[in-house]
Amino acid sequence: MPAPRIQVQGFTACFDGKPAVKNLDLEIFPHERLAIIGPASSGKTTFLRSLNRLNDLDPGFTHSGEILRDGKNIYDADVDVAELRRKIGMVYAVPVPLPWSIYDNLVYGLRLAGVRDRATLNERVETALRYAVLWDEVKDRLHEPANVLSGGQQQRLCIARVLVLEPDVLILDEPCSGLDPISTGKIEDALVTLKERHSIVLVTNNTKQAARASDRTAFFLLGDLIEVGPTAQLFTKPTHKRTNDYLVGQFG
Amino acid sequence: MKVSPATTQRVAVGFMWTLAAITFAVLIFILAFILAHGLPHVTWSFLTESPSSMGREGGIFPMILGTLLVAGLAVLVAAPIGVATAVYLTEYTREGRLTAVIRFGADCLAGVPSIIFGLFGFVFFAITLGMGLSVLSGSLTLALMVLPTIIRTSEEAIRAVPYAYREVSFGLGSTRWQMVITVVLRSALPGISTGIVLSLGRSISETAAVMLTAGSALRLPRSLFDSSRTLALHFYILSREGISMPNAYATASVLIIAILALNLLAYWLMRRFVAKVGR
User: Fold this and answer.
1) Domain boundaries defined on chain A
2) Which residues of B touch A (CB under 8 A)?
């Protein structure tokens, strides 16, 4: 195994004093797709939003423990949070194109980072769209409003919008929850090529998706990490009874 | 006796329709009355000439200019302060005692009668700060008066911007300031403009406060420290002192058309805003 890109060590996240993720230890490696499954309020999303410090926006959020990125705790006082969020790119459950053109959506992150050079912008946009399997569908209408795209296209646009920034880690929070099977398939296909360049963390409520589209799977329950292992192994012979119960649909 | 739901429905709708019609009829009546009396006297020379013999003869050009100066400057001063306050209240601070106090203050300020603003402006700007009866005193007083409107409408417009936009912006690596500029203000701009345009209308039509602060000089204002009479005040003086009713109505016509145009502009901006945010 190569050195992990992200090391979570004894990480606890609380909202208004109530823990949502408890004493978590987990590693995220380069070139892997890590799926996170578990029933509602098991801390999946909280964990994801801890990785890019989006939970900081919630005034009731507190945490303890460490999340190391390349050996450095991302919660250290001298960390540039904007830069961190560029490098740990997040895709949300509901695609939210900003009310601008497709192109303006895509270059937004780069413009925030101060990139002005048109050639660079265009090149990054094309690369990102190709990786997100959207290029052929939008290459002739980059300057049309983004919200004319279909739901599936919007979600791939949101993925491309993050890819433009060339993040190390791509974190996706139930990215297919509102999509039809064909759109879902396209996104899962995209993840296969994307793991060549990025680590991928995929939170999903759909255990079948986790089985299809991940290399390792972690099972969360009520803020605890119950177990984590290679996807094939976790789905065929889970070590814990609770994992098995969840997978066969006894609760969830 | 039992009334069927269909009947109550018809009666209720009829009742509300009548009330709405009355509102509209009153508006039309006032407009028609003033325009019928005033428009025949509105000529090109009326708009471009200075008045003579206290406004009995001549035109209203200095008042048009004075109105534009006083109201324009008022909005120019109030808009940045108001929008900044709204941004602070919505994006930079948590709901708490401080925001409650600021909001309560703004609401109280909105409820203060304009003559009180006039009195304050007279004592503070004109006398204490030595600005005298001037365009500057008048516009600063009006700025204070419209400030709560701008704060509240801007706040509403900013709150209407979906929270998800902010998360997306943060997620792509924006600082809070970048987020406010690129996402919040950009999306809320039509709504904010609506509030500003309505405030401009209110500044233009204000009479009591400008009478006490901008004065009622008939000559063309040459600097911000000159006294200047606004259209609304000119109308008031012409009719109150019985100088010339035709000219008073003509002035009122100009005023009312200007306000109507501004309201239409505000309405158009508002529709654009709804279309944008509602999408």
Assistant:
1) 6-247
2) 94, 162, 164-175, 178, 182-183, 187, 276-277, 279
